[in-house]
Amino acid sequence: MAKSNYITRDGWHALDKELKYLWKVERPIVTQSVSEAAAQGDRSENAEYIYGKKRLREIDRRVRFLSKRLDELKIVDPDPRQEGKVYFGAWVTLEDDDENVKTFRLVGPDEFDPSKQWISIDSPVARALIGKKVDDEISVQTPGGEVNYHILSIKYHSE
């Protein structure tokens, strides 16, 4: 399944900041250390040189990815007309059949973060939530079986 090209404004700025840091700060530092390590002679057994070259390849790969991805992404800002329904960027509080309460934020696949309870708009839970209102019920098929949720609240601004 293809990834959505949606991202929150904060998410886009975070990726842009990472790209600028890698290109303008970290890459020049690593390039300098590789040059210094290369000047020491035999490169075949020079751990600093070998590690530095590996790190440069990682940085360059990430820079290429971020440059391309930032061009593809579409920033989605909350629209006042969305209030009361679940759409991209919403914080949604759900209660399952066992009365467990969870709050998720629907974000783009480039910014999902389980530690923050941010889930991808492409996830089964998010897809089931789109367009729903408070008090609606959804069912989601999980590896452990079907889970039912009741929507307790929807908001578009963090507290």
UniProtKB/TrEMBL annotation:
PROSITE patterns (UniProt xref): GREAB_1, GREAB_2
GO molecular function terms attached to this record: DNA binding; RNA polymerase binding; translation elongation factor activity
Gene Ontology biological process terms in this record: DNA-templated transcription elongation; regulation of DNA-templated transcription elongation
Top-level taxon of the source organism: Bacteria
Keyword Transcription part of the UniProt annotation: yes
Residues in Transcription elongation factor GreA/GreB N-terminal domain copies: 5-75
Keywords: DNA-binding, Elongation factor, Protein biosynthesis, Transcription, Transcription regulation
Coiled-coil annotated residue ranges, if any: none
Keyword tRNA-binding set for record: no
InterPro entries: GreA/GreB_C_sf, TF_GreA/GreB_CS, Tscrpt_elong_fac_GreA, Tscrpt_elong_fac_GreA/B, Tscrpt_elong_fac_GreA/B_C, Tscrpt_elong_fac_GreA/B_fam, Tscrpt_elong_fac_GreA/B_N, Tscrpt_elong_fac_GreA/B_N_sf
Transmembrane segments: none
Sequence ranges assigned to domain Transcription elongation factor GreA/GreB C-terminal in this UniProt record: 82-156
UniProt family annotation: Belongs to the GreA/GreB family. GreB subfamily.
PANTHER family in alphabetical order: TRANSCRIPTION ELONGATION FACTOR GREA, TRANSCRIPTION ELONGATION FACTOR GREB
Function: Necessary for efficient RNA polymerase transcription elongation past template-encoded arresting sites. The arresting sites in DNA have the property of trapping a certain fraction of elongating RNA polymerases that pass through, resulting in locked ternary complexes. Cleavage of the nascent transcript by cleavage factors such as GreA or GreB allows the resumption of elongation from the new 3'terminus. GreB releases sequences of up to 9 nucleotides in length.
Protein name: Transcription elongation factor GreB
